[in-house]
Design brief:
The complex is a heterodimer of chains A (209) and B (167). With 209 residues, chain A is α+β, with helices and mostly antiparallel strands. Chain A is 44% helix and 26% strand. In chain A, strands 1, 2, 3, 4, 5, 6, 7 and 8 form an eight-stranded antiparallel β-sheet that branches. In chain A, strand 3 (62-72) and strand 4 (76-83) form a beta hairpin. Chain A is globular and about 50 Å long. Chain B is built from two helices and ten strands; from the N terminus they run βββββαβαββββ. Chain B is globular. The two termini of chain B are 22 Å apart. The chains are: A alpha+beta (209), B alpha+beta (167).
């Protein structure tokens, strides 16, 4: 889908998708951690691959990344990206281990599987909300986990898109714990990157295309 | 160093390319399944780097393509760019890094195996252009940031867990 065809109504609809998906995921996270989780108003942007790298502070920023592919009525990639410090706080609280640190080269199995499960639950809530809202059947793959440079992680989501375009539509919602909203650290992000033809499918399913 | 001015680092983004002359160095960050291809002339101390995403331009579904995105067109375009800088293609040598598989998946989808496919395609294109591959650091499952110095002709590779190495 070329960029000229995206109207402000389309952007609003995509924003609503980010809103509904991330709100469900934030609620799930809040229940898991027994802590208040806030989210920012979603941003929907069409950006170059290079600008995509800047969304969490550059290609080299080390992050904890959960990635899954969505297949079915609409296809795309979904990422849940957490800065190391935030991921550490979540996992320490989940497994009751203050020493756990994603910066260590040897990670405890318990911490890793807790992070994977967290990714499962959050992406599951995001996508089931999206599926309910659009009436589309969506089949997510099992999420994968990687602690690495943001550029190396996010580029796997750009592969399908790069066959058809040099730009990407990003549905971007950030979440943060209460009390951390104005600290300078980068927040956790949900990134939904619809494949080029899938944006149209989503908009069609909602009757706005 | 002959040149008295301070050296600069030329940054190359994803699906982009550029060339560099000493004393400057050239760098690309956060290579995952992408491959960074450095072509260099070790006598003139000129080098080019292309950050490729996909193996072949036949995968493109657009009329106009960004040459730097694909292994086949990217390497050709870089050779052309180096020629304009006065480099003899026969003198070019190559060092490459990247092509990792960042996530382990059971999915057969081709895009999940893109790292190894990129590496294969790069090697094929180098052979086709008779450019010897001097060194490589490819595969695995770690992201890489690479920087090439056209004076020493060393490619330094940084990963999150293994620190910095040189090839």
């Amino acid at each position: 889908m070329s960029e000229q065809k995206i109207t402000s109504l389309h952007l609003d609809v995509l924003k609503e998708i980010g809103n509904i998906g991330a709100a469900h995921a934030a609620t799930a996270l809040s229940n898991l951690l027994n802590r208040k989780i806030d989210m920012q108003v979603p941003k929907v942007e069409m950006v170059s691959f290079e600008d995509m790298m800047e969304l969490v502070g550059g290609a080299e920023t080390v992050v904890v990344g959960i990635f899954l592919r969505i297949e079915g009525d609409s296809e795309g990639s979904m990422f849940f990206i957490l800065p190391i410090e935030q991921a550490n706080r979540f996992i320490r609280s989940l497994i009751n281990d203050d020493q756990f640190d994603f910066k260590d080269s040897q990670l405890s199995e318990l911490g890793v599987s807790a992070m994977q499960e967290l990714g499962n639950i959050l992406s599951g809530s995001y996508l089931s909300a999206l599926s309910d809202f659009t009436g589309m059947k969506l089949y997510p793959t099992v999420p994968g986990l990687s602690v690495d440079m943001f550029g190396a992680i996010i580029s796997i989501g750009l592969i399908e898109i790069s066959k058809a375009s040099d730009q990407v539509i990003v549905i971007n919602t950030s979440i943060f714990e209460e009390g951390y909203s104005d600290c300078n650290e980068v927040h956790g992000h949900f990134f939904l990157l619809p494949d080029p033809d899938s944006t149209k499918d989503i908009l069609k399913a909602l009757g706005v295309y | 160093m002959v040149d008295a001015r301070t050296s600069q680092v030329i940054k190359v983004g994803i699906a982009q390319m550029d060339v560099v002359k000493m004393p400057d160095t050239i760098r690309t960050s956060g290579l995952g399944s992408c491959v960074g291809v450095v072509l260099y002339d070790d006598i003139k101390h000129i080098a080019g780097l292309v950050h490729i995403m996909l193996p072949d331009s036949s995968l493109a579904r657009t009329e106009t393509i960004n040459e730097a995105k694909f292994a086949n067109t990217g390497i050709k375009a870089l050779i052309k760019k180096l020629k304009l800088e006065g480099v003899q293609p026969l003198r070019l040598k190559a060092k490459i890094a990247g092509g990792a598989q960042m996530f382990k998946f059971t999915s057969d989808k081709d895009s999940m195996r893109i790292g190894p496919r990129n590496v294969e395609a790069v090697k094929k294109e180098l052979t086709r252009n008779s450019i010897p591959l001097i060194a490589e650091d490819t595969g695995g499952n770690s992201g890489r940031t690479i920087e090439f110095n056209p004076v020493t002709c060393q490619l330094s590779i940084r990963t999150v867990n293994q620190g910095v190495s040189e090839i």
